[in-house]
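Worked example

This section walks through a single chain of length 317. The input is the sequence exactly as stored; nothing has been trimmed or padded.
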Amino acid sequence: MREGVENWNTWRKENRKIVPDLKGADLKYMQLQGVKLRRAELQEAELDGAQLQKADLSEAKLHKAWLYEADLQEATLVKAQLQEASLLRAQLTKAFLREAQLQKADLAGAHLQEANLRKAQLRKADLGAAQLTKANLSRAQLQEATLSGAQLQEADIFRAHLKEALLNGAQLQGANLGEANLSEANLVEANLSGANLSDAQLWKANLSGAQLYKADLRGAEFKSVCLSNARLEEADLRGTTHVHFDETQIKDIRVDLRFGKFLERYWNPLFIKKPKAIPWIELRRDYTGINFLVTLVALLSLPGQKASKPVHDMIQV
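Given that input, the structure is written out below as tokens.
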């Protein structure tokens, strides 16, 4: 290894059946660009600051390895075992991490722009403040992961599992979260403007203070979702299911009813006992019979609405 990458790669080519044993090896700050470490034993190895651009680490065993500020740009880590590894502020731009094992890994502040993390295992991983712009996280397992303040603009998070994940303050503008499982996720003050959340599972998710301007929420499940102080101007909520906002949850929620994509309201005055009371509000895709007539009359009876006016101020008896 210390004789140079070229010599190492030649040796690997000539000795394909040998699995390099580098457990606990001190490889800090070494120049290892393009090195062939496929299936190597690197458990607890020290690779802090190592230069590993375009290296082949696919299926390598890096359990509890130290990769603090290592440069792994465009490296191949397919199915690599990185459980509990330290990748704090590592450079992983355009790295290939498909199906990598990253449970409980420390990726805080890591650079993962355009990285491929499809089907990666990231349960309880720390990705706080990580740079994940345009990253591929489709079908990734991110249960209980920390993504607070992460940059996820235009990321592909389709069908990812994010149950109980921390996404507070995350930047998700234009991200694809279609069919993602966000049950009990913390999305407080997250920016989801223009994001795709169609058919997403949002059971008990906390979206208070979230920015959902022009978000696509068609078919999403909103059971027990908190939207206090959320912004929903021009959001598309058609076909959402299990929406039931209580007075606390809809406090200061803002919508814009002037556009074709609008917030549909279901209002049944049979439950109203006092004038101007609002017992409950629910979104529905289809109105039938008396419910359709009651809703139509309610909408037509509303005074002229202004954009971004709170829902509870627009509903009147």
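What to look for: The longest helix spans residues 289-301.
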